[in-house]
Amino acid sequence: MLVHASFRLNGKAYERNALDLAAQQWTVSSDEEQQALGYFLMDWLSDDEHIALHTSGSTGKPKEIQMPKTAMYASAGRTAAFFNLSEGDSALLCLPIRYIAGKMMLVRALVLGLHLDIIPPKTKLTIEKDYTFAALIPLQANASFDVLGRFKTVLIGGAPIPTDLRKRISKKYKHCIETYGMTETLTHVATRIVSDAVIPFKVMPGIGIATDENDCLVLEVPYLPLSPLVTQDVVRLEGRDSFRLFGRRDWVINSGGMKIFPEDLEEVLTPFIKFPFFFTALPDANLGEQLVLLVEAPATEKTAIMAIAQQHLGANKHHIPKQVICMDAFMHTRSGKLDRKATIKRLNM
Question: Helix or strand or coil: residue 146?
Fold first, then answer.
């Protein structure tokens, strides 16, 4: 794939051959992020028509897929059109390059001719100038709240936005965009302004949506070879181009015939519980499944946490956990996300 003539990386212009040489040098760097940068650039600049990517499980069991570079190119073009990006615009990459969000920020810069700065993917960001475009995870947006004003457009995704952060952003910033997407769609295919009100996601132009027999979102993405994509996300369609997201089908709890979406309850309790936590289910002779709250906290906190749950979820008795279980540590994926399945498996060991 060609490198746009206006492309800049940390302030430096690169012709294709020079970038290829630099990439080879970066692959032997002692810095893991620079290594990842080098390896991806070598893949991108190679004659291969595909790049190997690893899915996160949004459409089923995580797996390796061969993604055409043309699809990545097309995705970058659609992002440019949607967010009015032009060659020479500045962009910041502060996410790990080994994951799709980081890779696609680099691809956008390469094919659109953006001036891209790369900084270490830390939780709290130190930024000394303004940027046209950036993407952050909620953890970074929270820790770096005061610098969000340095971006003309900032995407926030990769994990649910906590309620308290959502309220803070909606009061101060109008340029923060919450995104919905995954590796299989090469990041965002739907967006909404970060608001403290519950508003639906709206798909980007050209993206089709439907639901399957399980009310899971089905995406028609014209530039992808694997379209249509059946996700594991339970939604309700609102018109031809919008949907409300309830949670993953994988985590839906059926307790006495009541369907409970753990993510909804977690969003309610996030401002009030200072420890990592999530809802899951355990077998129950009468209910089929009983709602349980797992918390990464000392057992001495159990009573106080149950009181918080009762106070804030008590409007619906089915939403009050039958028990609070404290654990020493949760399990996480290689990308740092909570691994619910591994944590639950550990609980049952």
Answer: helix
Q: What share of the chain is helix, strand, coil (3-state, %, to 5)?
A: 35, 30, 35
Residue 225 pLDDT:
85
Domains and CATH numbers, the chain: 8-248 (3.40.50.12780), 252-348 (3.30.300.30)
Distance CA 263, CA 273 (A): 14
**pLDDT confidence band for 130 (50 / 70 / 90):** very high
Which residues does 5 contact at the CB level (< 8 Å), separation at least 6? 113
Q: What pLDDT does residue 332 have?
A: 85
Q: Output the CA torsion 190→194→198→202 (10° steps).
A: -20
pLDDT > 70: percent of the chain: 97
Beta carbons of 101 and 121 less than 8 angstroms apart: no
Instruction: Give pLDDT, residue 62.
Output: 67
Q: Give the start-end residues of each E strand in 40-130.
A: 50-54, 64-68, 90-93, 115-118
**How far is Cα 288 from Cα 253, in angstroms, rounded to an integer?**
9
pTM score of the predicted model: 0.82
Place of tokens 């926030």: 156
Range name among 174-183, 217-226, 247-256 with the lowest pLDDT average? 247-256
Secondary structure element (H or E) that encloses residue 95, with its range? none
What secondary structure does DSSP assign to 147-216, as a single string? GGGGEEEEEE-SSPPPHHHHHHHHHH-S-EEEEEEEGGGTEEEEEEE--SS---EEEPTT-EEEE-TT-E
Identify the band that residue 139 occupies on the pLDDT scale cut at 50, 70 and 90: confident
The strand pairing partners of 151, in sequence order, are 131
